[in-house]
Sequence to fold (410 residues):
Amino acid sequence: MSDKSHDPNQMTGAAMIVRALIDHGVKHIFGYPGGAVLPIYDEIFQQSEVEHILVRHEQGAGHAAEGYARSTGKPGVVLVTSGPGATNMVTPLTDALMDSIPLVCITGQVPTHLIGNDAFQECDTVGITRPCTKHNWLVRDVNDLAKVLHEAFYVASTGRPGPVVVDVPKDVQFATGTYHPPRKSDVHVSYAPRVKGDATQIRKAVALLASAKRPVIYSGGGVINSGSEASRLLRELVEVTGFPITSTLMGLGAYPASGKNWLGMLGMHGTYEANMAMHDCDVMLCVGARFDDRITGRTDAFSPGSKKIHIDIDPSSINKNIRVDVPVIGDAANVLGDLLQVFKAEAKRPDIRPWWQEIAKWRARNSLSYKKNNDVILPQFAIQRLFEATRGRDVYVTTEVGQHQMWAAQ
Fold:
């Protein structure tokens, strides 16, 4: 028999977690220590490849990891203890699920023999986080841990990104088992997000776009999540078609606000021209957005005379809020690339000059303008002064949620 005492793949569950983080290129992990994760913290302390960032509250760790994921495109990673540590993660997990942000949350759990006994700082982490995660796991066997960790990173960062939770009992962290690096077989067979759009549907979409008299492109966070190539292709599509484009809050930046075809943000906090164009259009191309209530208002009165094309990687978003005529399931970059290719080869740019003349009338209202007031500081004035004071500098503006977020977005 071979001597396994020197096998580098034999290690504790806690060591497996740190090794998996390194294998997935994780450089930073946000967390707060607690009794049920101390073995993992001991392993983090003994290496220098992954930097731990200590917070003052688990919710802060979750939101910090979200910010990290939003700004880098990499999954944010969080480590919290059992019970109250896990429950404090519910808000950031829900936020990440709503905004399609990849998070990998590792939670400690009481030893397996105490699960269900109302043990100290025990809670049903899998049950509590099921509605606010893309998927979650409770690992009862140390030899399953490597596979689950690799699957967790894959699920969080592919398809429509989102948060996942891996719940690891304390005895599994102490137990010794066999680790293996990431491999294709670590992905569950039932999870296979579709990234390439159906060719027939793309041709139907191109035919609709080519026949449009009053088209509009409605872009969302899916374009941002798909990466810089999707943003580049979206800009090219606007250039090739000459169509007006608007965006949700989450999609801002994919098309430049300085672009001549830009209508501004749409929805209840958006511009007059964007909302009027959405209401009166005859063909709407929705890319990576989900027709949420901030955009549609009353669904029965939303863009009543238009044919709708919906590109989204998440099949559950198609026809959920608004019935569409041409659904295309796939990654925004892949579908936009194929759609552009077909449009260039088979379609002719439609003449929409009368539509632009109508849009020009709406733009002339200058819906975001304001009159200065010497008695009170108007929010528009405050934002304008902030812009002028920081112009030309390397600046990061962070908002919470509420009115100030809308002022910043506008």
Summary: The chain has a mean pLDDT of 95. Residues 142-157 form the longest helix (16 residues).
